[in-house]
Specification:
mainly beta, four-stranded antiparallel sheet, 0% helix
Length: 275
């Protein structure tokens, strides 16, 4: 029996980066391997591949440090790996004390990037993207399987992180402080989207209470909520299910909020201020 997990590819210039985990589960020849594969975007040729142990990897992120692209990859073995995007060489790794099961989020600050990710028991880390040193760590309620969304709010870079403890957290990624949190009726297992409502920054996200929420990005005050449908199956479990996340695009010069949901429908809102 052969299993394999590939993650979302990352395109940087003319290269594609794909973290991969695969396992050969035959009883006499068991094998598990994780690696990051770099492909030429035009030809598909393999430029390099770097092994990273035997645990599941998650989608990569990147940032430019000292004029060079660095690749950031989280692993279920509890490590964040910093790699050269040019050669695949391991530059550093940061080790936590527990499993990691989310992709990293890169927050670009004036002093350099901070790489953020959550662990299975609720610790949420901010790591110096240049050196791999810990910048800060926060204790959230439970697991965070999505890295969150970040953006400028009133001239200040903020990070919005969903959590299984039923809250959305607003974090100052430079100071490593929780600014506010917003409670829902069930755990949040989707990535939020940062947009504007009536000219103000707002965070839109669904919870597994089947409600789509919009909150003010600066204060955490609720702006509106919309009732979504029930799931198509009889029960839910958190596990590592990939729950749907909303996105916001511009269509014919107007904002369009798109929300796929597990009731079998895709919802589209032409005016995010009035769902």
């Amino acid at each position: 029996v052969f299993d394999a997990v590939t993650t979302s590819p990352l395109l940087l210039g003319d290269r594609i980066y794909i973290p991969v985990w695969y396992a050969d589960n035959r009883p006499f020849r068991p094998r598990q391997k994780s690696e990051v594969v770099c492909l030429d975007a035009k030809t598909g040729a393999i430029l390099w591949r770097t092994a990273l142990g035997s645990s599941n990897l998650f989608s990569a992120a990147s940032a430019v440090c000292d004029g060079k692209d660095i690749l950031y990859v989280t692993s279920a073995d509890g490590n964040l790996y910093g790699m050269s995007a040019d050669t695949g060489a391991l530059l550093w790794k940061f080790t936590t004390c527990m499993d990691v099961n989310s992709s990293p989020a890169v927050v670009r600050l004036p002093d350099g990037p901070i790489v953020c990710f959550g662990t299975i028991f609720g610790l949420y880390y901010g790591i110096n993207g240049r050196t791999g040193d810990k910048a800060w760590v926060l204790k959230l309620g439970l697991n965070s399987i999505y890295p969150g969304a970040c953006g400028l709010v009133d001239g200040r870079m903020l990070l919005f992180v969903p959590n299984f403890d039923r809250h959305l957290y607003c974090i100052d990624p430079q100071a490593g402080e929780i600014l506010w949190r917003f409670a829902t009726g069930k755990y949040i297992a989707s990535c939020p989207v940062l947009t504007k409502i009536s000219g103000r920054p707002a965070v839109v996200f669904p919870s597994l209470d089947n409600i789509l929420y919009a909150v003010d990005a600066s204060t955490g005050a609720e702006l509106w909520r919309y009732q979504l449908g029930d799931k198509l199956w009889a029960y839910d479990t958190r596990g590592l299910t990939l729950w749907p996340s909303p996105s916001c695009i511009s269509y014919e010069g107007k904002p369009l909020l798109i929300v796929p949901w597990y009731d079998g429908n895709i919802y589209a809102f032409s005016d995010p201020s009035q769902p």
